[in-house]
Amino acid sequence: MTTTAPRTRGSGHGLTYAVLGWAVAYGGLRLVWTVGETPEFPPFGSDLLGFTGWRSVALCLVAGAAAVALDRTATWRPALAAVGWIVAGALVAAAAILLPELVSLLLFAPGPSFDPVAFASRLGCATGAVLLGLAVFDYQRRTRGDCAECCRTVRPGHRRSTPAPWARRAAYVAVAGLVTRFAAQAVVGFDDVAQDASIIGLEIGLVLAGVLLPLALVHHWGEVWPGWVPLLAGRTIPRRLLLVPGFGLGAAIVVYFGMGMAQVASGSASEFSDAFLWVAMSAYCLLGLGLLAASSDYHLRTRTACRACGR
Fold first, then answer.
1. Considering the domain boundaries, does residue 190 fall inside one?
2. Are residues 247 and 170 in the same domain?
3. For the stretch 36-71, what's the b/e string if a residue is b when 16 or more beta carbons lie within 10 angstroms of its beta carbon?
4. Are residues 65 and 186 in the same domain?
5. For the chain, first and last CA: distance in Å?
6. Are 53 and 38 in contact (CB under 8 A)?
7. Most confident of 83-87, 263-267, 281-285
8. Residue 47 in domain
9. Percent of the chain, pLDDT > 70?
10. Number of domains making up the chain
11. Distance between CA 11 and CA 1 in Å, rounded?
12. CA gyration radius for the chain?
């Protein structure tokens, strides 16, 4: 049964207008490219994956329509929220190549196929996903639960101080995913892997994201700085320091390597064997899913209690 309570917050019109503005601007660009001459972007021939031509235009229209529906619906409709998240996920999947491009830019080593126009287009697509995701989140806060301040559904005063068992398992699954990925590389050898500064930096980042981050999400030292950390020992760790990379990297890894697995399944040519690609990409997906699960538990466990209802 859905319970509706008076709301004291705004209805999210600003986010709706932002999504609509994005849909008009970015959808208009996709329309011009579809009707006119679509640019060729190496190495895939297109800037987006899966959604090209009229499909990309339709995706922008659906995103705008979803934002309007979310804004005008005053009660909690799980199906409507699911549609919003699915469309946002489709936008992220379409811009999946953005992840390795961002990594290469952070390491100051963009590849030879890097195209500024394609990068800007993927960034614009991802921006739409973020805006629509915020609109869905705002809708959930406005309509879900019976507290006008937080809209949470857990029992008042019911808070956990320790990670859930499933979260701990998810964290170690994430670590196992990274270990499996390196084990697969060890089997085929590291001879063909370049060992310049950018690759070494990427490997260090993978270790931090695949070992330190998931374990921090499910251990006490992920909430309070350990005693061996100079100047910060004993202080509370800002939640966003773990949640932003936990959710961000987790979602990006799942989308990117999920699309990669779809390409392998479709028979796309690669310099690596199918067996290696399936193992490596599946391992990365486990890493991403583990991060998402552990981050979800960390968020629920460490968020500030609502001053109105105590949830």
1. yes
2. yes
3. eebeebeeeebbbbebbeeebbebbebbbebbebbb
4. no
5. 20
6. yes
7. 83-87
8. yes
9. 82
10. 2
11. 22
12. 21
